[in-house]
Amino acid sequence: MDSFAPRPADKFSFGLWTVGNTGRDPFGHPVRAVQAPTRIVEKLAACGAWGVNLHDEDLVPFGSSAAERDAIVRDFRRALQDHGLCVPMATTNLFSQPIFKDGAFSSNDPRVRAFALQKTMTAIELGVELGAETYVFWGGREGSEADACRDPRVALQRMKDALDFLCAWCKDQGYRLRFALEAKPNEPRSDIYLPTTGHMLHFIETLAHKEMVGVNPEVAHESMAGLSFTHAVAQAMWCGKLFHIDLNAQRIGRYDQDLRFGSEDLKQAFLLVRLLEGTSGTARYEGPRHFDSHAYRSEDDEGVWEFARGSMRTYNMLKLRAQQFDADPQVRAWIAERKDAHMDPLLAGPYSKARAQALRAAQMDVAAIGAEGLHYERLDQRMLEHMLGVRS
Ligand code: GCO
Ligand code: MN
Ligand code: MN
Prior knowledge:
By secondary structure, the chain is α/β, with parallel strands linked by helices. It has 2 domains: about 10-325, Divalent-metal-dependent TIM barrel enzymes (TIM Barrel); about 330-385, no CATH class. About 45% of the residues lie in helices and about 10% in strands. It has 16 helices and 10 strands. It has an 8-stranded parallel beta sheet with strand order 8-6-4-3-2-1-10-9. Strand 9 (about 245), helix 10 and strand 10 (about 290) form a beta-alpha-beta unit. The longest helix has 27 residues, at about 300-325. The radius of gyration is 23 Å and the shape is globular. It binds D-gluconic acid and manganese (II) ion (2 copies). D-gluconic acid binds near residues 182, 184 and 256.
């Protein structure tokens, strides 16, 4: 038995648009055939995935009649049943149609804003019908090039209005959905509003139904902004807002590469898996592990499934290494919290005048403390040795 083989408990999911990606890029035509969603379900199940996610248009082509839609959904549901896959997350394509060229919820045109809400409600219904529990909002076109066209504050208010409306509508419908907001700094717009997970976390606090809204951070997007993905995810976990996650790989300073998870910046990938799995003793992230990435343009159909299997295998390999790293007695000793009984009354508990006075009076040997070496080189080297498998 391969201990890295994916199991349902791993909660690995892929979007129809990820393994269904045809390899098209701004410079070249597709290199792979369009696959039927039912085939993707079959192939993903064979690879050991647990779930499949979708945009409305990934499944039901734009402009389909009600009868066409129902037939497509019926076939898709049968495929899910036959192959034992679920749909944990759904989302709306608010970026491909020309009407969204200047955004959807933030557009200056009220007709576009109304259409965006209408399309999202229809897409939410589809997601709910398929059993999705998380609904992702990625505002890929909510941004600008000619910034004078719109005050960013107006854009933010429009996005808040749209989310407040959609939250209220879901409650009214009795849907038990949670919304997950996905940030990205740029691409396809020159600048996208709410560019990082940190921006999103603050924006959520302004919403009327903030309890039902969290984030869907993506490795590539935070890396494009030059930020630590692990820190972004940790902050989301710290405030109970990590509702979903998009796993892939990315090199800083480049276009949105959406590479196979772990294929770049292995150290960040290791630290991320360690965080999500809680191997250092912290709470584990229990949601889907979604791969929002696609195979290289060099790949044919077989290469796509090698890409999918590799994504899950890498996650599980990193999980084992993270467990071993955190079980290493030497590591535990090195990162154990410093105990200093003298400091406890100064730092613990709420504010009090007595505590403020005690702090003012405390003596610390500033020079000696400043001169102490922390041995993080040793710790980091040990981590690399675990990652490279020479310390198991
Ligand atoms: C991207 C985004 C998308 C979203 C998807 C779901 O950069 O293209 O990551 O893949 O995740 O649209 O909302
Ligand atoms: Mn992306
Ligand atoms: Mn994404």
